Amino acid sequence: MLVKTKAIVISALKYQEKSLIVKCFTESDGLKTYFVRDAFSNRKSNQKIAYFQPLTILEIEAVHKNKGTLENFKEIKLAVAYNTISTDIVKSTIVIFLSEILHHSIHEEEKNQNLFSFLEAALLWLDHHDNVANFHLILLLETTKYLGFYPDNSDMDLKFFEMTEGIFTPFHGMTSLTEHETHLLKRLMALKFDSDQKIFAGIERQILLKILLDYYTFHLQGFRKPKSLDVLKEVFS
Fold first, then answer.
1. 3-state DSSP assignment of residue 93
2. Rounded to an integer, what distance in angstroms lies between the CA atom of residue 47 and that of residue 36?
3. Are 137 and 188 contacting, i.e. CB atoms less than 8 angstroms apart?
4. Pairing relation of β-strands 30-36 and 19-26?
5. Which of 1, 9, 182, 200 could join 161 in a cystine, given CB atoms 3.0 to 4.6 angstroms apart?
């Protein structure tokens, strides 16, 4: 079936000498994996390597056979040409980190329009704003809404957050956050991308990042912490 859709590049893996295997989160069909033959050849000007950088937003025309095999692009162009993400070391590090997170978080080959729209809007926000210290934390937390395990906020007055159940509780159990950690999580839950970026100190961001990665580990089978985590910590240290 011939499909025209927007797609966000999740990962690109070199195959043999000249080809790529590209995983995309598409607006039309959710997660799809494509084979790009001769991606490193100058002969295919419509399939440039630059198109397959992490979290690039594309407009694609592709043949989807939907048989669990690799699909094929027919046409590719940039839906958005980022102004700052590729040249700003902080933003490019955030994008590499988040692409790894999404690679280990999105597994379903099914349409998730709301998640696609959220990610697209978030990436455009990142590209157009300079104060982005909390961006990755907010995005990680907000993404859990679309993956099905956002914290239950009905009892946020309680002192502890229980990680496996995703609820606030009056008791501190084996898999609960401390009272201080719970307080940080509550503050994060109240933030939007445009909120004051100075609300957290550097050490508090590190604590929150660990909390969120642990939370993903509890709720997503096979989730692995990104290899780029140490680089991200260095950028925000």
1. helix
2. 8
3. yes
4. antiparallel
5. 182
Q: Which two tokens stand for residue 226?
A: 């990104």
Residue 91 to residue 43: CA distance in whole angstroms: 31
Other beta carbons within 10 angstroms of residue 56's beta carbon come to 24
Nearest by Cα to 100 from 210, 233, 223: 223
Radius of gyration of the chain from its Cα atoms, rounded to whole angstroms: 19
φ/ψ of residue 166, rounded to 5:
70, 35
Q: Are 79 and 107 in contact (CB under 8 A)?
A: no
Q: What is the amino acid identity at position 176?
A: S
Query: Residue written as tokens 């906020």?
Result: 153
- For 112-153, the pLDDT digits (tens) are 999 999 999 999 999 999 999 999 999 999 999 999 999 999
On whether the pTM is more than 0.70, the answer is yes
